[in-house]
Amino acid sequence: MKLFGPLYDRCRTLAAHPHAPWYLGVISTIESIFFPVPPDVMLAPMALARPRAWWRYALLTTLTSVLGGLIGYALGYFAIEAVMPWIERAGHAGTYASVQDQFVKYGVWIMFVAAFTPIPFKVFTVAGGAAAMPLLPFALASLVGRGMRFFLVAGLIAWGGPRIEPHLRRYIEVLGWVVAVAILGVIAWLQWGP
């Protein structure tokens, strides 16, 4: 089943659009709240198309992702009862409960790990608010974790440039499925692990 190749091709097309930075900002914001597609699929082609602007795209992605994280935090803090049916319908109720336990055990470190890795950041933003995690550590962990991730992705793509694009396109399907399996593994570990 080819899923990630066509998505990558579509994002490459959008990356060349004059409004691409706006699309990237919107995707980065809503991904931290509810959207299932990570902004990396838009960030990477944009950094490839304009390598000199990679750091601006990484900064935009970081800031808008943290903004979305703060919105998710507010949803969790002020409206968890209203958001909980959506979490249950999305199949994240068990993950949400496990994330709550992780906040108790690991505090700010769990936010940093969620921000940096490809696990569903949106679950952690809502859970952080519902757990009443202090806002400043939440925001700082999100900023550092998301910043490290997006600057790393954009920087590597810009550095590798056109010579890595054919390899990226050739293996995008495998990479996409590896990341999807890794995400499912983390969710399973959070739900049924220690």
Q: How much strand?
A: under 5%
Write down the oligomeric state: single chain
- Element-by-element helix/strand order: HHHHHHHHH
Which structural class best describes the helix and strand composition?
mainly alpha
List descriptors:
194 residues; mainly alpha; 9 helices; 81% helix; globular
Short account of what is shown:
Helix content is 81%, strand content 0%.
Structure characterization notes:
With 194 residues, the protein is mainly alpha-helical. The chain contains 9 helices and no strands. The protein is globular and about 45 Å long. The N and C termini lie far apart (33 Å).
Topology, element by element:
Elements: H1 4-15, H2 20-31, H3 40-49, H4 54-89, H5 93-106, H6 108-116, H7 121-130, H8 135-160, H9 165-192
